[in-house]
Amino acid sequence: MSDELKRASAMAALEEVRSGMRLGIGTGSTAEFFVRALAEKVAGGLDIIGVPTSERTAALARELGVPLTTLDETPELDLTVDGADELDARLQLIKGGGAALLREKIVAAASRRMVVIADDSKLVETLGRFPLPIEVMPFGLEATRRAVVKVADALSLKGEVVLRMAADGSPLVTDGGHYILDAHWGRLPDASGLADRLAAIPGVVEHGLFIGLAKAAYVAGPSGVRQIAV
Ligand code: 5RP
Questions:
Q1: What is the mean pLDDT of residues 156-163?
Q2: What angle do CA 223, 226, 229 make, to 5 degrees?
Q3: Which residues, listed in sequence order, are joined to residue 87 by a DSSP beta bridge?
Q4: Catalytic one among 15, 16, 73, 104?
Q5: Is 217 a pocket residue for ligand 1 (Cβ < 6 Å)?
Q6: Fewest beta carbons less than 10 Å away: which of 60, 111, 113, 166?
Q7: For residue 102, what are the contacts with CB-CB under 8 A and spacing of at least 6?
């Protein structure tokens, strides 16, 4: 997705931000445009407080002077703005390409409203083109992976479930100290049913299916930004 489209969707979401708001601040390259634009507004006098969804976002926000708090200090948020790897017309999402899905979901769930910023290449009819990230405990990794594969078998989903690796060749470790399995299952016709089954596996900390969390999306394309709302 081009930087112009990322910026356009981020700017559209920024229109929802008002002084006094408690914000959840997403992770990823699109969310980064939001953080930069937000920081400019803050420098101009906008009075907000933000909860970052990753160490990466926290570092950028701090560097740019965006005031931050924690969910423990501010457990209820007004608005979360975050990117997504994939979304459908019902605003079901796949997230976790940036390995931040656990904090992203906790923050989104603590928010009165979550809005997604994305370009139109991420809008799909049925989720699943993007491999589904599943955050798991390092303890019992292989047993958890097998349980995940069993769920896939029960739902006739075929494809590899692979451990995400870091650049140095070791397993990628999330901000929460967990690993990520990427499930290459293709189309997920019953994302909600799959979400329930994955959540029930001991060892699965969280999965990247965000169902019923996003209330709107700002989807940028060549002819402008359109809002999808549910
Ligand atoms: C991180 C995420 C991101 O929101 C998602 O990966 C989109 O990132 P980008 O805006 O860079 O495409 O879920 O865990």
A1: 98
A2: 165
A3: 93, 123
A4: 104
A5: no
A6: 166
A7: 135, 174, 175, 176, 178, 205, 206
Q: Is 135 in the pocket of ligand 1 (CB under 6 A)?
A: no
3-state secondary structure of 167: coil
Is 0.95 surpassed by the pTM of this model? yes
And the tokens for 199?
A: 């959540």
Which runs of E-coded beta strand occur in 32-178? 49-52, 77-82, 86-87, 93-94, 111-119, 132-136, 161-163
d(CA 180, ligand 1 centre) in Å: 14
100 lines ligand 1 (CB under 6 A): yes
Q: Which domains does the chain have, with CATH numbers?
A: 3-124+212-226 (3.40.50.1360), 132-201 (3.30.70.260)
Distance in angstroms (rounded) separating the CA atoms of residues 76 and 72: 9
Per-residue pLDDT, 1: 54
Whether residue 42 contacts residue 67, with contact meaning beta carbons closer than 8 Å, is answered with: yes
* CA of residue 82 to ligand 1 center, whole Å: 8
Ligand 1 centroid vs 67 CA: distance in angstroms? 22
Q: Predicted ipTM?
A: 0.98
Task: Give, in order, the Cα–Cα distances in Å from 138 to each of 70, 146, 165, 209.
Answer: 26, 14, 13, 20
